[in-house]
Design goal:
The chain is an alpha+beta fold. Helix content is about 20%, strand content about 30%. It is globular.
Length: about 850
């Protein structure tokens, strides 16, 4: 009988670990053939056949072949919708040698089929798939031969979901981000954002979106990898276990296990009977490790990983039957939610140390998922690591990411808050739907629980919030609304937590995010984590973020336009108008541009034209969200996390992102990098206080804070030196100092014509630790010098230093919110969107993100609030 099983791994145990796969193709007794060549595809019922990319989806190949327009350029969205409404078939042929055919075990592994697919091998149906998020491994030894034909027939997700919609009574679920009359997305286990979102276009992809592999193995082999867990409270803290079904076949009697440090030196080795690893004993799977190195998040220590190597043996010194290896990171992680005097805490501890979570919400980096490369992922993690992040939230309307995504997180010390893929709508709760979801849960929990970077699981994004506060009770009949609640509880209060107790019992589970707090009910802010949308949807001023303080901020944000260099890549000059069809088409929020203008007008001069609007939108977004980040850090340990919305884009759009679709940093990413530094200054002129906010330090540090009031030409009006302070080691928090604003800024005229430069220095060495420039009034109220009118243009020089283009910038007068652009694709600037203080010299390093041997110096574009080229 045909056997199709979830391809996963292992089981959980105490405070985790990690195991990150190292490719063992062509290992001792197992081989893997990746079926990526020779594929074709065609529309069902049509004769024209095209070459296919595998992994890939139909849309990317049609674009490559010129049969479909670039879906991201101008207004192509409507012209691509027909693809998702049709059925498509993929086909390839492959050959096996006589030796390969004689392998005792031959399995086909499909890592991802998007989404409804029937798979045929040599004319025999071997698999029926209905979930994009699940991989399938099928025993095909009885059907393979020397020459083979593999066919994958995909049905339109829209057509496949229609009967489910009808069977549910035609209820149009409140999936309002699904940009279609009938919200079919809730019935299909496919990435929700493919159906549209308030930052994304609609593209119903279809295809073999993850690799297809033929696994050729011996009669006895690893069917799943061993589990390694870390239990620091035990005398023998490391546990190595063979989960049920980990070994296929009966030849192996012993397991050889070795552990190597990061330098490749063997630090532990053991050979023992399999039984001593199935139920770990001190003679087998239980051991200690002298001088154990722990895995730490970015900024708190090194994300240290060992390499574990395993061999299945016939006898203690007998023949090796199979082998596998993977990386291991040892650490503990816990989410603390306890009643306290302020309500209920919400913070993470790693290796027993509480820390402030610094990061953002991540969405898939494209709609065409197979086009994202490992290089793209490495660059993303390089960006966030250099920006002092220690956490990303993988948001529940996208997808469970590739293994290499979590490998990068492991290697760089970035903790992952992992949502399950449910967001912003009620979902069905019938038996068939729940069975489908259970396969998805087990597959992805087993696939990801290995990683030390996985910090917590979260059931969904904002669904409990929607049920309680989004008006669904009035929108639907009472019996339907009650069904929504019953189905919610069946999925998020029963199925998911019960599955986690079996598969990963010691990681925390958050039922829904936000877990308790609603931004419209500020009295609840002391009860847990919050999505604070009083900013943006409530149009509240940014300053409210100093007052409305949750225990953990897991979403807040405002939109901005992409960089001008990025707009040029998806629009034409005639489109550069807020009212143009193209700009409206790339703005998916119905209130978007109005709200952006609302926030610009709160603090900045009125935009004079489209280019000015784009620039000011980024200044506003960066400064406003950084105000919130700084306030949240200053409130530690009451508030213990700041994850803004959102890190990146899925297509070139007007959105809440800090890095646009093309990988270019917007103003917000630069501001976030500065606000997430280990030690920052947080002045609050309204409350007459300045705080020194800090991450845990390895030792005490004595510091000295000063404030200088300067005119816009650099003249020093007065200096304030604050009492020396000691930042205590080992704790996250802040030090509050009174801020004598009446002494610093003495007249309204000074408030409009000066700035305050705060500097924090090491008491012993005098080294600058942190610097912050602040103003007593809003930017639009400042009497800034007009450099263009006065003729005092900034001095700029550019030259190559090795592979880095160095930009040196000076100005005799203050330049407010400087924006630099090399007006070419592929450049990254070390600094941008910053104030150039009079008399200071600034060196900005520009590096290429695409290889080039050219040493040509490109044109530099510079603008500021008070300087327009």
């Amino acid at each position: 009988m045909l056997r199709s099983r979830l391809h996963g791994l292992l089981a959980g145990a105490l405070a985790l670990l990690s195991m990150q796969s190292i490719d063992t193709r062509a290992s001792v007794h197992s081989d893997t053939l990746t079926l990526s060549k020779g594929w074709t595809f065609h529309e069902a019922g049509k004769s024209e056949v095209y070459p296919a990319s595998v992994p890939g989806v139909v849309q990317q190949d049609l674009i490559r072949l010129g049969r479909l327009p670039d879906p991201y350029f101008r207004l192509a969205e409507d012209s691509i919708q027909w693809v998702g409404e049709r059925d498509w078939t993929y086909q390839c042929s492959f050959s096996l040698t006589t030796e390969q055919l004689q392998r005792p075990s031959i399995h086909l592994l499909f890592e991802g089929l998007d989404t409804y697919a029937s798979v045929y091998l040599n004319g025999t149906k071997i698999l029926e798939a209905e979930n994009m998020f699940v991989g399938h491994e099928v025993d095909v030894r009885r059907w393979v031969k020397a020459s083979n034909t593999l066919e994958v027939r995909f049905r339109s997700p829209l057509q496949a979901a229609l009967p489910l919609y009808d069977a549910a009574g035609g209820i149009n679920y409140p999936a309002d981000n699904d940009h279609a009359e009938k919200h079919l997305s809730v019935f299909t286990r496919k990435a929700p954002y493919h159906y549209g979102w308030d930052w994304g276009e609609r593209m119903i992809t279809i295809g073999i979106w993850r690799p297809v592999r033929l696994l050729l193995r011996g009669a006895t082999h690893f069917a799943e990898r061993p589990v390694i867990t870390y239990h620091p409270e035990r005398q023998l803290p490391i546990e190595v276990r063979l989960p049920e079904g980990a070994v296929s076949g009966a030849e192996a009697t012993h397991l050889s296990y070795s552990l190597y440090d990061a330098g490749g030196k063997k630090v532990f080795s053991r050979v023992a009977p399999l039984a001593d690893f199935v139920k770990p004993t001190a003679q087998g799977g239980l051991h200690a490790l002298p001088k154990l190195q722990l895995w730490w998040p970015n900024g708190l220590g090194k994300p240290y990983r060992y390499e574990a190597r395993f061999e299945l043996r016939r006898g203690a010194r007998g023949r090796v039957l199979d082998e596998t290896r993977f990386h291991v990171g040892f650490r503990t992680i816990e989410l603390v939610r306890e009643e306290d005097k302020d309500g209920r805490s919400f913070f993470f501890k790693v290796n027993g140390l509480p820390f402030f979570a610094k990061g953002a919400n991540y969405i898939p980096g494209t709609l065409l998922l197979p086009t994202r490369t490992d290089g793209d992922r490495k660059q993303l993690f390089e960006d966030i690591t250099s920006s002092h992040f220690n956490m990303l939230r993988v948001w529940g309307g996208g997808t469970y990411e590739e293994g290499t995504f979590y490998d990068e997180a492991d290697a760089r010390g970035i903790l992952i808050w992992q949502d399950f893929m449910f967001a912003c709508t009620a979902y069905p709760g019938d038996d068939a739907f729940l069975r489908n979801v259970e396969h998805e849960l087990r597959y992805n929990i087993r696939r990801l629980r290995q990683h030390p970077s996985i910090a917590t699981w979260c059931g969904n994004n904002e669904i409990r919030e929607g049920l309680k506060y989004w008006g669904w009770a009035k929108r639907y009949p009472a019996e339907v609304y009650q069904r929504f609640w019953r189905d919610y509880e069946a999925l998020f209060c029963k199925l998911i937590p019960e599955t986690l107790r079996e598969e990963d019992p010691l990681r925390s589970y958050i039922e829904s995010s936000p877990d308790t707090v609603n931004w419209g009910r500020p009295k609840e802010l002391g009860l847990g984590e919050s999505h604070y949308w009083g900013i943006w949807y409530g149009r509240e001023p940014f300053e409210i973020l100093r007052e409305r303080m949750p225990r953990f901020m897991s979403e807040f944000g405002v939109q901005s336009f992409p960089m001008l260099s990025s707009i040029r890549r998806f629009a034409l000059p005639e489109d550069y108008d807020l009212e143009s069809a193209v700009m409206k088409g790339h703005q998916k929020s119905s209130i978007g541009n109005d709200v952006i203008l609302h926030y610009i007008r709160q603090d900045y001069p009125e935009p004079r034209d489209f280019e000015d609007f784009v620039y000011l939108s980024q200044v506003m977004q960066g400064r406003g969200i950084a105000l919130g980040i700084r306030a949240q850090r200053a409130a530690a340990p009451y508030c213990m996390g700041s994850l803004y919305w959102q890190l990146n884009d899925a297509w070139p759009a007007v959105s809440w992102s800090s890095i646009d679709y093309y990988g270019t940093w917007k103003g917000l990413q630069y501001e976030a990098k500065r606000a997430f530094e280990p030690i920052i200054l947080v002045p609050d002129t309204a409350q007459r206080v300045i705080r020194i906010a800090h991450d845990p330090l390895p030792k005490d540090r004595q510091v000295r804070l000063s404030a200088e009031v300067r005119t816009f030409s650099g003249a020093i009006l007065r200096v304030q030196v604050f009492p020396e302070q000691t930042i205590a080691c080992g704790a996250v928090g802040s030090i509050a100092l009174p801020l004598p604003m009446e002494q610093l800024i003495q007249t309204p005229e000074e408030a409009r014509s000066s700035y305050i430069l705060y500097e924090l220095r090491d008491k012993k060495t005098g080294a600058l630790i942190s610097q912050y420039t602040d103003y007593a009034v809003k930017t639009k109220e400042l009497e800034l010098p007009d450099l263009r009118a006065s003729g005092d243009k900034p001095t700029i020089s550019m030259g190559w230093v090795g592979d880095t283009l160095q930009i040196t910038l000076e100005s005799r007068l203050l330049l407010k919110d400087v924006y630099l652009d090399l007006e070419e694709e592929g450049w990254h600037l070390s600094e941008n969107f910053f104030d150039v203080l009079p008399g200071e010299t600034y060196v900005v390093k520009a590096t290429r993100r695409t290889p080039s041997s050219s040493k040509r110096i490109p044109k530099l574009y510079l603008r500021a609030i008070n300087y327009h080229p």
